[in-house]
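Fold this complex.
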Amino acid sequence: MDNEVKMMPHGIECCDEEEVHADKVQLVNEQMPPEDRLYDLAELFKAFGDTTRIRILFALFEADICVCDLAATLNMTQSAISHQLRLLKQARLVSGRREGKQIIYYLADDHVRTIIEKGMEHILE
Amino acid sequence: MDNEVKMMPHGIECCDEEEVHADKVQLVNEQMPPEDRLYDLAELFKAFGDTTRIRILFALFEADICVCDLAATLNMTQSAISHQLRLLKQARLVSGRREGKQIIYYLADDHVRTIIEKGMEHILE
DNA sequence: AAAACATATGAGCAATTATTCATATGTTTG
DNA sequence: CAAACATATGAATAATTGCTCATATGTTTT
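Structure:
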């Protein structure tokens, strides 16, 4: 009936009732970052979690590129690329500067490279 | 009619026809990792891209924990947690060892910590 | 071996998401 | 200022995803 975690200084039994490993549960809950930070983190990684966006980021590793070049390179529609750039911009992974008619996109900061590098290390290990 | 990228040593005009910034397009395409690697990378980041899974990972930063303790800590169903653990296991972010009736989950390697740290840096900057 | 317990998993559903199409916004050129 | 060009965006749609419920698998206890 109640959802709250009971705390009791007992042994290491687990799960047979509402009495779980109270010590661990408490420790974990104390260390857990606030809800909005967890949300922001998940949103950030979501931005990396799509092949099209990953390809855009890899493209921007090499050069600052306008939307239509990105579309040409990745062989996708300008619209599709624009939509994805919006998400990347929201996650502050890329920025754009206007140059005449075009908008040139570029990596917003070095975290992008670092995070992708670490991800690469993990999948290659 | 054709989808192939034309290469022509021309100036810096862009986008008004099929002739884009050929040099950039070529450079980018040369440096682009193979399709399956891009896919794996995106899949990896997808695993980080959900609040529940992020919370599970933060929990495992503190201790190795069994499924039902995770469920208790995060105040979610055992089933929901199990489903998410399966995804995390597929991404090789966590592993589980059996201890009696329980399965104790733990972080698979240090990349998990590093990647989340880098993500944290980015959202806090 | 049966009952109890811990975890895993398949089906179903609601919510989210990636793309397309049509069109709007903003810039440059004639 | 009109036409052309580059990009952005809203609506619609198909695919994916996260959770629930029911149940299956595997372990321990009696």
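Residues 51 and 57 of chain B are 10 Å apart (CA to CA).
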